[in-house]
Amino acid sequence: MDTATHFAFGFGLAGLAQIDPNVAADAWATAAVMIGTVAGSQAPDFDTVIRFRGNELYVRHHRGMSHSIPAWFFWTALISTAVWLAIPTVPYLTLAAWVFAAVLLHVATDMFNTYGTQAFRPVTRRWIAWNIIHIFDPFLFGAHLLALALWALGAVPAVVLFPTLYGVLLLYYAWRTAVHVLTERTLPKRDPTGREGDEYTAIPTVNWSVWNVVRKNREGNYTIGVWRGGRLKWTDEYVCESSPLIEKSKRHPAVAAFLSFSSHPCPHEERRGGDTIVRWLDARYQHRKQYPFLAVVKYNANKEPVFSYVGWISEEKLERKLQDAPSKPMLVGTR
């Protein structure tokens, strides 16, 4: 989920907390819970600071440990204690319960989008990405804005407004889940070019009736398309290659970080003069006929890495980086 929507959920939970007598009876308690739920709704994404240590670490760890089971309790204790020390009149357990709800809601909503999270570490390191809700959902954000505006204006009591809001959102998530399941079951039946063994993944967009579609065949190649208004249209094909250099690239930190996260990786090798570029893309993320989430390693004629990149980048920026890359071997793990 995007940062703005997480903020909206944080304020929305503060409104929902008005059903708690320990919160509603005291203005300071209301303020403390609002600070706590807003902070809790952002806390799991505090790991974005690791971006400063390089994209390899960021791709490998973002939405990893910070969203894990131990982190749920760590963030709750950290935020609740800090807020309680500033506003000690609020009952600590009440504050902690609402902060925990904010942290848990953040993690839960992240599991519904395409990026996903390692929410159940250390039980499992598997990335959970259900591909049901777009990273920014206008309905979720707009519903919160409307509810918060009505609350600020005093038009509807919070004890009526916010339980209604979250009841509607619960139904919304259930509906989107059902649509997603139905869409993925329908795709093989509506694909005249499909073959036995093909795997279909429906990726949400901001438009309820439009899904991006990824088809993986038995050979491991991908076809990319769009499901719009009950019709399937294929727009791109990507053949995943294999070579000794591609196998070697798997041991490079940039590619290893990419493979630790990507569920639909596809490699390609390209010769440019004496250099060779190995490019790994994630077939789930197509934007304007580009695949902006990728890992790239450029090797010189001696098969030594001279440049690498992993993360989100446009084709134009990547080309500039490749052209400016030095010809001398790089230390593995640097860019």
Give Rg in angstroms. 23 Å
Give the termini distance in whole angstroms. Answer: 29 Å
Can you tell me the overall shape? globular
The averaged pLDDT comes out at 92
SS strand fraction: 15-25%
The major pleated sheet works out as: 4 strands, antiparallel
Q: What is the chain-wise order of helices and strands? A: HHHHHHHHEEEEHHEEEEH
Alpha-beta content class: alpha+beta
Strand order of the largest sheet: 1-2-3-4
Assembly category = single chain
Helix amount, in percent? 40-55%
- Low-confidence runs of at least 5 consecutive residues: none
How many DSSP helices? 11
Mind sketching the topology for me?
Layout: H1 3-16, H2 21-24, H3 27-42, H4 55-61, H5 69-86, H6 92-111, H7 138-153, H8 158-186, E1 199-204, E2 210-216, E3 222-228, E4 231-238, H9 244-249, H10 253-261, E5 265-272, E6 275-282, E7 293-299, E8 305-312, H11 315-324
Jot down its keywords:
11 helices, alpha+beta, 4-stranded antiparallel beta sheet, globular, 335 residues, 18% strand
Description:
There is one protein chain. The protein is α+β, with helices and mostly antiparallel strands. The protein has 11 helices and 8 strands. The chain has helices spanning 3-16, 21-24, 27-42, 55-61, 69-86, 92-111, 138-153, 158-186, 244-249, 253-261, 315-324, and strands at 199-204, 210-216, 222-228, 231-238, 265-272, 275-282, 293-299, 305-312. Strand 3 and strand 4 (231-238) form a beta hairpin. Helix 4 runs parallel beside helix 10. The chain is globular and about 75 Å long. The two termini are 29 Å apart.
